[in-house]
Amino acid sequence: MSQQLDKYLLYSSFNARALNPVEVAKTFIPPEEFLRLANNSHTFVVGPRGSGKTTLLKMLQQPALESWNHEDAETTRKNIGFTGVFVPTDVTLTSQLESAVQGLAEGPSIIRAAYSIHVLRAVMSAIEYRCGRFNTEIIQPFNRIEMTQKMEHELIEEVSYGLKRKPRTPSFASLKTDLTAWLSEVFEFAGQQRLLGLEKQRESLANSGLLRLDFTRSACIAIDAFESVTGIQGERWALLCDELELAPSIIVNDLLRLVRSTDQRLLFKLSLSPYVAGESELSNVFGSVKNTNQLHTNKVTIEKSAPPQEHEDYDTIRLWYPNKQDGSRFARRLAESVIANNGIQDQSVDDILGRSVFDPPETSHRRSASAYAPGSPRNKRMKRLAEIDESFREYLLRKSINLDSPIIDDDMRAKTLRKINAIVIVREAFRKQDSARSRKNPTVYAGASAFFAICESNPRFLIGMLNQLLGSKVKTGSLVRVEASEQAAVYSSATARFRAYLRTIPSPSIGTRPSRGLLSLIEQIGKYFHQEIVVGEFDDDADGSFKVDSNADAELCNALQRAINTGAIIWVPEKSDETLLTTVRGKRFRMSYLLAPYFQLPLHLGRSVSLGRILGLTKLNETQSEPTLFDSLDEESI
């Protein structure tokens, strides 16, 4: 992401990409998925921006594990059966490489050579740390190796010999400098190839030992040298490859083949966004990919006879939550940690943010029914809505529901009222005859469970928003409380920033208005749901999610891909084990709950409707007929 977009990114200061492993470990709260990631298996970690992919991979590095102070830390350290090697995707390097090899017949070999050096640098850094001195932040050292200066010299010499290079000085520090020089040499080679004909290019390549490398071979050269010098044999090494969707397609292709078969000492932990283009190499993660030696090509051959099998060849971890309850346990643990880090003791997130009006009644059947009895808050809200909403009054008549009579022993009516509660909340809040009151309703999205839903249990969103909320805390005696109006203000700011970010992402025009980037598409979907749920006739099963039509054009599908990977829309898989999305056609999605306050939507899934219907029957109006909660805080105010 370019630096000029940083101001739009939601809480980019909490991006683990910019933190070293020790800094990541200081605040790390492990989700349940972390133990699965730590297993001795190839693993794909899939999630949108900010979902914690980079954090999880960085926590598998030795410096992070050694400095991690948590109740699960010791057990995790004992169960780790590999040395983690973090391999970031260098977007700048990728861009430079693709530019350097454009039009060169041997472009793939040049890219592999550059990434071989990139991976070798990461492996050697991991080896150096294992053999280095303890730093002051270590909680519990493990898996350490004592290495004399003589052993270090031997190790560097063996690595250099394997690369057919001569080291200037046999030391870790010198090798780092050498690797940088060799990388520059690769770029120089690419430049020289442009002056040669095709035959000369091939001849030049054949005479270059460095350019015949692939990244697994370079990693194994380092591991072989480590084993030779230390006498330790057969250890496993995990290449923690981050942001795979940003890597060159040739490297991606190689990695996917290696998931099926590779050196038994190597594990691959690969992170990527949920959506991958249907024609790309990543889309064939469930098939065996044969390298076609094409650079960013859509022509990939699939060997269907021997596809890798999930749970046999690899595991997959999903870091997003189609249903808001799924991530609440982790979100609550992370929130409690943030609260403690803010110096607040003996108070839960529920104490500080309060209870949400979207929360279900007490678990007891009798109490659940009595929550809608005459005089209860839910009953009063429904009566207020009935006063201003004729269609709701008609609905109550059809269902034979009298809000003035007890329903404690009426299972059917109690079930009906529970079903419509979330819709009633937003209709009553935003259909008020007093439009000024409607525009500034601060209580609807207040409360702990609503907070978890709005931040989508996304660690970056949660930490950023909760720190903001705690910055506006009000003390009553020894208690800390964040008022509902302050919660609304924080959600307003977060939503405005997120919308501004969506505006920077290219997207086709919708209707007759000029495109405002991806925001135009998201707004059309959001306004459709607002019309159906809040403005139109009352429907106890109103549209709240959408399914993409099978004939959706490629341009629209590409826009939806960006919306998924940025977290603006959330995929709702039909099966619990679906993780990687290779096409949006025929798939179901909902809007991110982060956008619910802006579009005045309930925090629930809702009935599915065709996206074609949304885009075909709804037009973006110049002005909204109904005021929105945060109209005064648009992206221009940031």
From TrEMBL:
Q: Which Pfam families match?
A: ORC-CDC6-like (PF24389)
Q: Where is this region: Disordered?
A: 357-380
SUPFAM superfamilies with a match to the protein in the record = P-loop containing nucleoside triphosphate hydrolases
Name it. Answer: Uncharacterized protein
